[in-house]
What does this fold into?
Amino acid sequence: MTRQKLEDATIREALTGSRLSRRRDFMGKRLGLLAIRLLVSVNLLYAAIFAKFAGIPQSVALFMQMSQALHGLISQPVFRLGSGAFETMVAVLFLISKTTRLGARLVVLWMTVILLSHIFVLGYGFFFFDAIVLLLLAVSYLLLTGRQSHQGDGQSVQNTAA
It folds into this structure.
């Protein structure tokens, strides 16, 4: 082989390798984002279905404490079941591809409210640290997908202009 052909073959191999590397990186990121969506949604659905809707004693006591902190303005069952309904809606939004970023934003908002309620009323415990983990996962999801949405917007604007 001549030197030029050898260099061309080396360049082709390098390009093919970088394409495979990019494809693997893309698939890894997609799987990571899917894992975040599933972890957060399953956690929210578990809390809603098995704690709030089922009315386990710990959940009832927690929401009774929250109701008393609000001077009974919202009764414990309404507070508990409303919270469960909202968490279910947020979990479903986070699972649906077209509404995932909205769901992630709502998770961030909801976990912030939960953290504040634990700091000022309920105290620190398992649910407090669970809320921190969910908040960090939702923020991570938004940060990891933020560039994609902005790049996609720019491309669609360029395509529209063309």
Summary: The CA atoms of residues 51 and 85 lie 12 Å apart. The chain has one domain: 3-144. Residues 3-144 form one domain.
